[in-house]
């Protein structure tokens, strides 16, 4: 690996770590919002509405448009359009789980689920991603995550 590619990869990994740090903060904030509005679903809706407002602003600044060519909808694969509903499941589940499990256990359980499906997606190359076969090193990494969840749960 060249020095330039190592720096780029390290920068993207750091970006991923920082993005990962946002998830538990979002979960904790949304869980408190749930208490304030007395509904996990209203809290999730508020989260998505405020996120949508930010995305409208960012899209207008970067793309200078909000127009979508509707002809792409029937021409594209069905699963391109399920990200929003999947986000609802993710955010609302976090809101419901945090008061029951705590922040650390909620995040590690969700992360474990993310890793499990990520390994499967990589292995089979689903959704057009480059295939990365499951090997013993990846299985050991996943087993260590499960071990971490057990340790966090019991201590």
TrEMBL record:
What Gene Ontology terms describe where this protein resides (cellular component)? plasma membrane
What's the short name of a Pfam family annotated to this entry? DMT_YdcZ
Reply yes or no: does the keyword Transmembrane helix apply: yes
Task: Give TM segment ranges.
Answer: 43-62, 78-97, 103-124, 136-154
Q: Would you tell me the protein name for this molecule?
A: DMT family transporter
Keywords for the protein's UniProt record, in alphabetical order: Membrane, Transmembrane, Transmembrane helix
Taxonomic superkingdom: Bacteria
